[in-house]
Design a protein that fits this description.
Strand content: under 5%
Protein name: Imm downregulated 23
Strand order of the largest sheet: 1-2
Number of helices: 8
Keywords: Signal
InterPro entries: PSII_Pbs31
CATH class of the largest domain: Mainly Alpha
Pfam families: PSII_Pbs31 (PF18240)
Number of strands: 2
Structural class: mainly alpha
Organism: Ectocarpus siliculosus (Brown alga)
Radius of gyration: 31 Å
Mean pLDDT: 75
Order of helices and strands: HEEHHHHHHH
Length: 192
Amino acid sequence: MKTACVALALLGSSSAFVVPMANVRTTSSSSTSLAMSSEPMTRSQALSNLFGATAAVAAAAAVPGVAFADGAKSLATQSRARGIYGNRIAALKGAVDKGDTAAIVAEQNCFRLFNSGVYSTDKAKFAEAEALAKSVVQAAGAGDAKALKDSYAAYMKYTEKKSGYNGAGDGQGFGSEFDYKNRTPLGTVYQR
């Protein structure tokens, strides 16, 4: 459907720019002369060509997104976000225990990426996870180590994130592009 619309749009727009064919005249001698002869285009013909091209482009643009891909809400991308960004968030536990607020501020985007990847299908859970993540980042930004520990613990409890995530239904492993272990230290293969 989309291909047909694009083809029609190209055909319609190309017809607006048709160059008249040249007349080839042969004379009695062996040489041929080439002469361009065409009736001049009237204003109404030019406008009809323009409107035809515009209508074809409008028809192609009016077709809704036929190939609407929503891969951000698939189980594979949710698992990948949980594995990659979740492990980075879980690795911050040592920094939280030491009161290193700068480490949390440096990794604050992991919280947002984790939430948007894992909770992409549930707006209520996403909103709650975002609120908890915001409290973690605000406590780290303020330099309050006690509030950081409490908010981090609440976030980890809500997301049920444990260090070294090995979730159920991970599939075939790091050989897949969508597996969270792909291109991470967990997916490293050592050969002798």
